[in-house]
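Continuing from the previous page...

OK, I double-checked the sequence for ATP-dependent 6-phosphofructokinase against my notes and this is the correct one:
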Amino acid sequence: MKIAVLTSGGDSAGMNAVVRAVVRGGILKGCETWVVREGYEGLVRGNLEASTPEPAPPTFPDLPPETDGDVNLLHNLRFGDGQLLKDGTGDYIGGRTLKGRYIVRVGWDDVKGWFSEGGTLIGSARSKTFRTPEGRLAAAHNLIKEGIDALVVCGGDGSLTGADVFRAEWPSLVAQLLSECGSGSKCDLIASSRLCWIAKITREQATAHAHLKIAGLVGSIDNDMSMTDLTIGAPTALHRICEAIDNINSTAASHSRAFVLEVMGRHCGWLALLAGVSGGADFIFIPERPPAADPWEDEMCEHIQRHREVGKRKTIVIIAEGAHDRNLKPIKADYVKDVLTDRLGLDTRVTTLGHTQRGGSPCAFDRILPTLQGLEAVNALMEATPDTPSYMIGIQENKITRVPLVEAVAMTRSVADAIEAKQFDKAMSLRDPEFRESLDGFMTISAIQQQPVPASKRMRVAIMHMGAPAGGMNAATRAAARWCLRYGHTPIAVHNGFRGLLDDQVHELSWLGVDSWTSRGGSELGTNRSLPSVDLGAVASKFQKYSFSALLMIGGFEAFSSLLIMEEGRKHYPAFHIPLVHLPATISNNVPVTDFSLGSDTSLNALVDACDAIKQSASASRNRVFVVETQGGKCGYIATLGALATGASLVYTPEHGIGLDTLRRDVRFMKTRYKLDEKGRAEGRLVIKNEAASEVYTTDVITKMFKEEGGNLFDSRSASLGHTLQGGVPSPTDRARAVRLSLKCMTFIEQQHGTLMKQPQKTRHALPESAAVITIQSSSIEWVPVQDMVAQSDMKNRRGKDPWWLPLKDLVESLVGRPQLAAKL
Ligand code: ATP
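Thanks. Re-ran it with the corrected sequence; updated structure tokens here:
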């Protein structure tokens, strides 16, 4: 199969990772891979001349004879020089001129080092010509001329609509090309199976290209596509926005100012909403849910006035660029500023973030998601038949999905239509559950007015951090505390874990006291690793002393172990017959069953930032392999995902271990890889190693081994990332996830408490399921009773059995060609 990939519409971070994944994934499946420059415009323009014949495969000094049959693969592995468009001229690729050529054959190394680049290196455009039938006819002709039969389109809803139109029209375009007079299938010549002398394609070409296979990937910073939780580029844009809010927060608080921030999102309020949740904003405006009150100015001013009355010194209002009132009248930042200034007397400033939201290096998620989705797009194309629909590759929670492109496009359009028809509830119902939950969460935690439950139902909820600090712990605590206060419950902070509890380090949390916690790293409550078993009886008596009605523990494996101890302790201590809940938070992501813990995204981003800098330094002077050691205990999650996000050449994890045979193959691979590099340019490569991958082959040993074996080909150094992986400021994903999961924990606690309260106090008996862990499992969020977790835990190594990310190690190494090179050379 010949696969071409193009990027279209507004650029977004992660598009380069898509191209890399499609190219490398395609080559690994034996396909020929092409890129189309400048989006659909490049497809329409095509190549001025037919593609030049491929250059002869280069010879390899150490190519043994038995690889002759696989010369194509090796040719692909060597083809190109990783400089495609990187020089900014847009005019050459792998030393070949691109003037007048928009559809270009690419190889393995053409996409080398693309991960850290923002935007799209193959160019994007908004093509008016492609919107016309003539433009699409030219596009079809250009694809057929190059023999391309499959197309991956990465762009926003417009681009995917274009892809859908193109796919639907394809048979008629082919028929038309076969009879250039334009009569298509009605052509007499075609009907009589005779040759048309003015046809643009041959009958063989028409037969071979009767169907165009298309897969769509959503590259859009707005996250405006239905049937997928996230679009490529949206997480990075959210990073940029949160960085801006964090910076603005300090100046706003210093001067007691209000700031009105306009963010992107014409038809979708995702960026504004998630920025509101993770930036701790006071008020947001999104297209799907305009303010309920008419006039809305009263609602906003009352809301912000209350915040000021409790002592807030800063106000942040976020507006999506497509925000409007219930009559669809646009709400603009300057007007909001005037209202805040005139009515509340606030010193108000407007900040429009504009294109800064698009820019910059992709965050970890915008490297991993496009890689997995790009590979899935190749799979979908390989499996496509004339009867299967064209797919859009999406994601639901943690599951890469395929949904029919037509349906996704139609549903996306129906959200815009619902807004247009002022059917805002319908628009909300068409958004994914995470969107709706995030909005409910924002409303709950930003509101001050109470909606107290009856006194008999009120709870005293203890909140505790356990284990090492992890990004999102504070945001989760803030959300839990605010939820409690809204419904008349009492949120109680237990400082420094169980030791703190035994020392009576306990105090009530207030609405204002937790206000700035969203963006804070570390643990505001203080944390340690002591388990309740240090003195279970004394812990139980403290539970009684403070009349805890429920406990929320935010932490890693220690929190899970503590939960287990207390659940088992229920046999002896009635004080533990309350809802006991664990919200996983650890950079190691080693809590069993759950796909993600809070903090794991922050630490991945810290790793990606560090590795980008290390790789730059490694490439600066001479060929150098950097062995980067990560934390993670006996769990290789962060090493594996970090390797996937940075394009590392090798990854070593405790789950797979390190053996002599592996090391020997890895050294051969590395040597081969450096031999195949273009001469004269230094190249840095990463090896990511978990701290506990092997007791014998330590980071130092491996570094020395690569240095010794590298000889004249490459040098080797090591770097240990250590505690830097805990990250300074939590990532927006961790903050938003913290809020969402924390509020789910509170709802669970409330339900379990309600069930318990139905029993007489003296004989109150909590069921095992009331001691549970909140988990993300593939596409859903599930509660797992702690006793059920045990079966899926490797208690000795403090990690889960069979985690979802384990197979990704092979993927990491496939994407750098290790298995192919190591086995063949
Ligand atoms: P963004 O979300 O950044 O705006 P987008 O993909 O939605 O990205 P658009 O400008 O709407 O951006 O679309 C990109 C290109 O897709 C258009 O310039 C056009 O070439 C093509 N396209 C969009 N809609 C159609 C359509 N209905 N028919 C044919 N082509 C289309």
